[in-house]
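Reminder to self: tokens first, then the designed residues, so the page reads top to bottom the way the pipeline ran.
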């Protein structure tokens, strides 16, 4: 299932992410791709909100790669901006982090670790299309639980 959104504000982006977050389950991996400032961390905050995590807890740490947040389920926020090789990723145990079954795992700069992402990874691509405008494309497995996400986020879909 591929869903496209036209976001006109950080609030819109967070609303899309929150709707997706409501469909997520422990063990899910969400891979975010998009340039610096496209809204990956903003999207992560929205997912966190759906899991009961206050948005201001989720930040863009300069050097921390994996941050765990208590939530229902817990959220593991991974930012691999500073990882350059698959070897570095394996050295810090990212393969195990990503195969964990207790938390939802959200990865910023997911394209850097494509080989480590599960095949049923939910992919989110953010593109800057204007000052406050972002195009967001979400690809998720064809599962019933994502139908609810499609419905809840209609307002921000083209023609919705
Ligand atoms: N529609 C939008 N969606 C998300 N962020 C937006 C949007 N419009 C403007 N912004 C701004 O873009 C920046 C996105 O930052 P951030 O989420 O940290 O991006 P990234 O993690 O991709 O580098 C924030 O300053 C935010 O206020
Ligand atoms: Mg970020």
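Designed residues (160 positions):
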């Amino acid at each position: 299932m591929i869903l496209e959104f036209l976001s006109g504000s950080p609030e819109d982006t967070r609303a899309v992410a929150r709707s997706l977050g409501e469909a997520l389950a422990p063990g899910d991996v969400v891979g975010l791709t998009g340039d610096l400032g496209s809204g990956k961390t903003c999207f992560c905050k929205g997912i966190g909100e759906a899991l009961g995590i206050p948005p201001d807890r989720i930040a863009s740490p300069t050097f921390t790669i994996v941050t765990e947040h208590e939530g229902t389920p817990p959220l593991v926020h991974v930012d691999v901006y500073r990882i350059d090789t698959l070897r570095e990723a394996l050295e810090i145990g990212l393969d195990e982090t990503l195969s964990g079954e207790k938390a939802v795992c959200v990865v910023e700069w997911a394209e850097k670790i494509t080989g480590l992402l599960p095949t049923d990874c939910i992919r989110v691509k953010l593109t800057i299309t204007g000052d406050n405008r972002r195009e967001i494309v979400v690809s998720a497995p064809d599962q019933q639980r994502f139908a609810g996400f499609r419905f809840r986020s209609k307002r921000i879909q083209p023609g919705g």
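The domain at 2-156 is CATH 3.40.50.300 (Rossmann fold).
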